[in-house]
């Protein structure tokens, strides 16, 4: 493998330009080709990056032997075919979230990448922010004690999408963060939600996720809210977190609050529950752009043969939850088992 | 009936003193007796209101022919017996929320009050705030257009209760507000939640309520949150409301935001959804203490023979939802039909 | 001196009832008499505290040999005469802020108290809050480094007063806090402000206070603001504080932010100024009601013969600044020397 | 004059790229040349705008007969020489704020532009935001009644500048907004402030500005604050405004609050002051980027021969206040007359 990882980017719409801009500034990476089926977007790409090859034919990137890795930033319905073709062409793959439209597809991609010993990474961008990494570290080092709940709200007057519902558009962020910071996986989901525009997918949804050990998670997403909210509460037996992504600097606040139990083995009725409130603390966060940290990690995994933090299995788990939540939502909250251990096995 | 309504108050713990203080200042009302089984609370009542009779025997209030009405501010498990006895003794009744522990009990009280032509009112206090009345009026006069969703969060590091779960303690407020401001009743509920203290009732819960006509409601309640939140979003086709009860003055904000549809009967794929954002407006609210407004309304209903806004049926509807939500929560979100029309018939 | 300190309270209008309520619950203190010239206020006091003597004649409290201390909660114009008479009658004195209307009066009271070895304390209530004591401790233990500035805003749509301007009404709070938490005293003041109602005192004012050692303080007070603000910034070379008294719990936030200097003795042009940002921390505060802590301190000082934190000198310093600021304001910001060392000598 | 206005931009450091980017997208304008003395900045400009001429020699832009207008985005100490040379070369001029370092220089530029009938515009960017234009319109149409005060805070942990103090760096924004929205000009200023780094200019400052008719303005600027604040209060006899530039959408809030006077001609002591609180209203704002609106206005003024809103006189008024405030600050608040009518005559 050459010193430089040559990258081809498929899709130059909303997210593609961010991928290109970040890879352009990462040492050891080089964007050599960009494809999109809209010529006007390619013209824009060409004027900004005069040395990059542009094409409307994405298959030409897969055939190019100088390209080591493919980044896919196209609509979700095309992820599977493009990623599979790229893997079959021997390219490492970074694919936008959600990874695929079904868990079967996700499993097929994982299998293909394993067989060929290629890096398969899903662009769960938030996982690479300083805020989420800090929360992961706090939980991993047991500073919150046992985790009691994970509650997230992500609402605003957002763009309605015609091809996916609000869960696939917004909850995917919360699920990827949750999957990274929590120490265990949910075993079932119950979801509710409806559409307010006839013929369109659901624009408001609520997901409850069940875990072993008294942990519950809940996600509220809404494309039709008057105000923007991006707030997650994480409750633990020792400490609790408020993560507000709209705060300009103090995004993560850690509260030394909780309950204390003065139990009595003879009778739960004699259980005394006390309240504990202490200091609040907001740690300084690494403000590196998430996509830069993610790009560096992708290059690093390719170079060293490491497994990415947001690997195919992480992508699969999220897709499986999205799938099950959509199914539950159609049945007004019916509990759907996730079987994440099985699907990921 | 005498010019003055003489009131006996049963229960002088947390809420009773507020009832007494407000009735003491309402023209046409007079608190003549207070009962509580704790003598030290009666001593406190006596020192503040030297002319009031105090007793540990609540039945003596029911036997007192000079008492016109009984206000009950005791634990919920005692509401039914006390209210039924008071009605049977010919007294008008104001009972704390939740009205009873079962919907059967609530129906029995309604029946008894109707038979005896007595006022039966439930103390859904928030319904009498300026903020909630303003929201009711805005919705009733169609200023929000069609109602799309009602989403409420009521969380904080609150007192754990041993006898009722967090739904009966906190969601009762949201349900009574929702019941008052929305134009229709839910037909089913799906709820999730768990307990984090062995042997104690659930301390975190999520309720989804289903209505006809594409309306959904959701309530999040939590006794174990690091921060206090009291926020409701109400989305409509024309306007949307943010109601934040922690704001000192601008509790209700009305956003002239929404979506516009440029539909096409031939194909939903040609549906264009546009976004509309306009002014925000926060109306001046009546700042009268809710309990004073409620007390005046109670006296008014007794005097004029009117039906209270928060009558027995309103109380019954809330109890029925609490009951069903608790049942659903035990079964991890299973949909429970409410049959509110039947129970209230 | 008896075991109990018997207290007479003069003035039962706005603040008097708070004094009485707190002293009533302090071990070792007993309110035995209350005077006010309005009989209806005395009736209210009597009904709440049946065992207290009430009178419209304040001089009868001074003559009462069983009374050890007098608390004065009357308009500022009456403070001097009442406090002087109380001291001459051999009573310890707690007087509302501002202590007097002139610094000469304040000096006279200090002299009288010293001569008679009596406790003279000024009710600078905020000094006894957990928030202000925490800030005092942080500064006293050098955790902020050198103090650079003290900036306070106290504005709202407040009651216009006819007898004193907004400086005497609102800035007195900021000055008493500043006087307690800062390590040194200002040497001069420049103030601006105007009245918006003909014939009434100034309702908006800005004070700049000059200290040695590059420390500056500024206070903005306004009776005619659309929103309520109670916010103080304290900048230090090592850390900075934001104190927001309207925050329900996190009133004091400490920012590990500042500048770092990489100086060069040869040339200021080569001075490099770097920026430092670190964690933010909000310590748990003692939530004891300030007036209770203050009352305990008053009783303690009487019992042990100690000097109060907010002694006559502290009161005098504040009055001197108020006096000078009012003078400066009349002359559109003219610098007025304070000579605090002299006046307090 | 050609259909297109050809623009040369001098200075491609912090602000220049924003000017170029906006002019590049304005119909009727074309950036043809860019100069900067740093070749690496020119290289960046060239790669983004391949067709633009770049040079380290700014005088070559002045000599270029195809250039109609010069935009100057260099340090303030160079503004006068560059602008004068550009005017003498017959070019229209858009110059960064502050316009010049002295009011004499500003007057000289105005004179030169008038003589040659050229547009001289100062880049007071905030004047072209939707928020500031809305406030201007509300005040101009008397919706606030008489204006009582203008109070602005602009603080954060900002870049220390070595050549100008914090007034010239930050207060210039507030003064240009104030100058645009208020109906009259101040006649005198009193300012205080200090430097916390030896040998460096003042990093914290407070300005009080005096107007006729009981109007006062105050500006607080600080490079060394732990939090960022951008908040202006404008008080009027009928309504009041809170303008918070950090709010993502509701930047301008209008409060229907104030006082009501029930005067009595015989005695001010009988003046009764009542309080009035009504609705709050936050109007939708034009979200066009200010620099785009400003660029369009510049082109329009050139094309039609109109006088810009932020003309040389506006620039001169701000420079005169900055000058006087710096002088006052050196003398600890001494009142300095502004004579704006004279300087602008």
UniProtKB/TrEMBL annotation, chains A, B, C, D:
SUPFAM superfamilies referenced in this protein's UniProt entry, alphabetically: Glyceraldehyde-3-phosphate dehydrogenase-like, C-terminal domain, NAD(P)-binding Rossmann-fold domains
Transmembrane spans: none
Pfam families with a match to the protein in the record: GFO_IDH_MocA, GFO_IDH_MocA_C3
Organism domain of life: Bacteria
Domain Gfo/Idh/MocA-like oxidoreductase N-terminal: 5-124
GO molecular function: nucleotide binding
Residue span(s) of domain GFO/IDH/MocA-like oxidoreductase: 132-241
Name this polypeptide is given: Oxidoreductase domain protein
